[in-house]
Design brief:
Layout lengths: L1 H45 L3 E14 L2 E15 L3 E6 L2 E6 L2 E7 L5 E7 L11 H7 L3 H8 L4 H6 L4 E5 L4 E7 L3 E8 L5 E8 L11 E11 L17 E2 L27 E4 L9 E3 L8 E7 L4 H16 L5 E8 L3 H11 L5 E5 L3 H5 L7 E5 L5 E6 L5 H18 L1
Parallel strand pairs: 6-12, 15-16, 16-17
Antiparallel strand pairs: 1-2, 1-11, 2-3, 3-4, 4-5, 5-6, 7-8, 8-9, 9-10, 10-11, 13-14, 13-17, 15-18, 18-19
């Protein structure tokens, strides 16, 4: 009996080891095939003296099986071996001509700004350049590999914990999964060039918020086009300001001291409500509340982690003052209606009437610099208090401001 048990255990151990060995061999074969596919792409790119390609960056969300795509940046890329590069979009340009690497762009406030440094001798380490990363964004890894093609398969396979290969005609698909993201690379087989990249960060978003995918599309490929030297010479505008970091492009800063709108008439607006109450499902005009109620406006977006952290505070305030003459308006900024509807129906936040500032026009009128940002408006239509972000005493300060507005209006 003892011999039988030993035999069964020995056989089971062999079976388990055989299964693990087969999985390991299958994974190694997939990695080898993926490396071979990427080496073909690298060899083709190495054979080119120059290329041009259109790059389109976007974000995607899937809500109830419908993909919502938001274009982010479109740019043309020109490259000439070994160190000539031009990436040009509507608002910014990056150029390397062998002598200078220059960036010229428009800041958040509409000002012309530039940066300048020594041009690299080749693009082996271009992915570490802050201006290249800023312009290329989530296409940085693949685009930098295309510029220094011998490292394409190394950069993508180096951090991958799982690789999947799906050969097809005319395009093949490679998926690389690492500890923090999943990359899907779609490339043409003839010629072997990247045509689409999707990066899906691996994280758990807030409840009711679909995960965001970052996409980069490469189109209108041109192999060995004639690219004259003048193309890579980027002139700096006379009135441009020199900056040292891409962060300086975000030059819309919070005002020092009290908000400039305090004591002034609140900008009027008329925007759509998505309230599930049919009586409120209409266009809401701020003027409807003047002379009758104090108004609280909370600007928010589902992508703001700070908003999700402060939401319980606003829900408590909404409940606490529910019997007072106060209208709570939650204005979502620049997100698609289906995405906001999904969040509201899933989370059911108690924020008052939810409004859609689809183009961000109302947010601009109120000078919004971040989320959430809230305004208390008295019955006379004047802004009496402004609150930004989160603080440990936010609820108490907000309560005091509401009570002050209620009392002041009552005395008038």
């Amino acid at each position: 009996m003892a011999n039988l048990c030993v035999a069964v255990l020995f056989t089971s151990t062999i079976t388990v080891r055989s299964s693990i060995s087969q999985e390991t061999r299958a994974r190694e074969r997939t990695n080898d095939e993926a490396a071979h596919q990427l080496e073909d792409v690298s060899k083709y790119l190495q054979s080119l003296d120059s290329f041009s390609v259109q790059l389109e960056l976007a974000t995607e969300m899937t809500v109830e099986e419908k993909v919502h795509r938001k274009p982010w940046r479109s740019a043309v890329v020109h490259y000439r071996h070994p160190n000539r590069l031009l990436i040009k979009s509507e608002t910014m340009t990056l150029s390397a001509n062998g002598e200078n690497l220059r960036f010229v762009g428009t800041s958040a406030s509409g000002k012309q700004m530039y940066a300048e440094s020594r041009s690299p001798t080749d693009f082996k380490e271009v992915q570490n350049n802050p201006w290249f990363r800023f312009v290329a964004r989530h296409a940085t890894s693949v685009l930098s590999s295309m510029l220094y093609s011998s490292r394409l398969h190394e950069s993508l396979l180096a951090t991958a914990t799982q690789v999947e290969l799906s050969p097809a005609t005319p395009n093949s698909q490679l998926q690389f999964r690492s500890s923090n993201a999943s990359h899907t690379l779609l490339f043409s087989n003839e010629p072997p060039i990247p045509v689409h990249v999707t990066r899906a960060p691996i994280y758990r978003p807030a409840k009711g918020v679909p995960p965001i995918r970052l996409t980069a599309k490469f189109s209108d490929w041109a192999a060995n086009p004639r690219l004259d030297e003048e193309l890579f010479v980027l002139k700096i505008p006379e009135d441009a300001k020199r900056i040292e970091s891409p962060r300086e492009l975000l030059d819309i800063k919070r005002p020092d001291g009290p908000d400039p709108l305090i004591g002034k008439a609140a900008p009027n607006f008329a925007i759509k409500s998505i309230s599930f109450n049919e009586a409120d499902s209409a266009e809401i005009n701020l003027k409807r509340y003047l002379g009758k109620q104090v108004v609280v406006i909370n600007f928010w977006t589902t992508r703001s982690a700070t908003f999700h952290g402060t939401r319980p505070i606003f829900e408590k305030l909404n409940e606490e003052f529910s019997k007072e003459e106060i209208a709570f308006l939650a204005i979502n900024v620049a997100e698609e209606e289906e995405i906001v509807n999904h969040y509201v129906s899933t989370v059911k936040p108690r924020l008052g009437t939810v409004l859609l500032d689809s183009e961000g026009a109302v947010a601009r009128a109120y000078g919004i610099t971040g989320f959430p940002q809230s305004f208390v408006i008295d019955r006379n239509g004047q802004v009496s208090a402004v609150f930004r972000g989160f603080s440990s005493d936010l609820q108490e300060r907000f309560r005091t401001a509401l009570q002050k507005s209620l009392n002041a209006d009552t005395l008038k």
